[in-house]
TrEMBL record:
Residues 1-24 form the signal peptide. Keywords: Signal. This is PepSY domain-containing protein.
Length: 76
């Protein structure tokens, strides 16, 4: 019985960080992530629950979306 509980606890510790969503990120954390990816002049655009940003990269202004896993995608 103790071994079963220990395995369940271990699985929870391994799985929880993998599926934690990005919507828990603060604006400052998102900006830091974008800056580390090479973006500058970052500003958040208000669009409801979706995190969208405008930023400059390589001298060109781009629109960005941050998905629920924290991945950055440039919009066309």
């Amino acid at each position: 019985m103790l071994m079963r509980v220990s395995r369940a606890a271990l699985c929870a510790l391994v799985i929880v960080p993998v599926v934690s969503p990005a919507y828990g990120l603060t604006s400052q954390e998102v900006v830091a992530k974008l800056e580390s990816a090479g973006y500058s002049q970052i500003r958040e655009m208000k669009s409801g629950k979706i995190m969208t940003y405008k930023a400059v990269r390589a001298g060109k202004e781009v629109s960005l979306v941050i998905d629920s896993f924290g991945k950055v995608k440039e919009l066309p």
